[in-house]
Specification:
The chain is 0% helix and 50% strand. Strands 1-2-3-10-5-8 form a six-stranded antiparallel β-sheet, with no helix packed on it. A four-stranded antiparallel β-sheet has the order 4-9-6-7, with no helix packed on it. Strand 6 and strand 7 form a beta hairpin. The radius of gyration is 13 Å and the shape is globular.
């Protein structure tokens, strides 16, 4: 299946998971288009200071892959700085959050 950039749905989520600002989501494929093998596949943009707040994963996991910029990631209370090419996976039963601590936009791929 091919999908052009213009065909992808977008959304702005104010205070996503209790975070700061209004991250922008570009949904690459819907769960249905993925044969319900994944719940979410999106590129998320965080402007400086924006975040996705701490949230748990139950009965699923979520992977983040940094495409542009940098982010402060917290997983189960442990904090790390991630840059382009770095990744994080939050497994079932764990928590994580992400924050753009830089002066430029951060983009990352999120897959649940």
């Amino acid at each position: 299946m091919f999908k052009s950039y213009e065909m992808m749905e977008t959304a702005v989520k104010h205070n996503a998971q209790g975070g700061e600002g209004s991250p922008k989501f570009r949904y690459l494929f819907s769960a249905e288009e993925l044969g319900n093998r994944a719940e979410l596949m999106a590129v998320i943009t965080l402007e400086p200071g924006e975040s996705v707040g701490v949230h748990p994963h139950t009965s699923n996991g979520e992977a983040y892959f940094i495409l542009e910029g940098g982010a402060t990631m917290t997983e189960d209370g442990e904090t790390r700085i991630l840059g382009v090419g770095d990744a994080e996976f939050c497994a079932d039963g764990h928590t994580h959050s992400i924050r753009n601590h830089t002066a430029a936009p951060t983009r990352f791929l999120a897959v649940i």
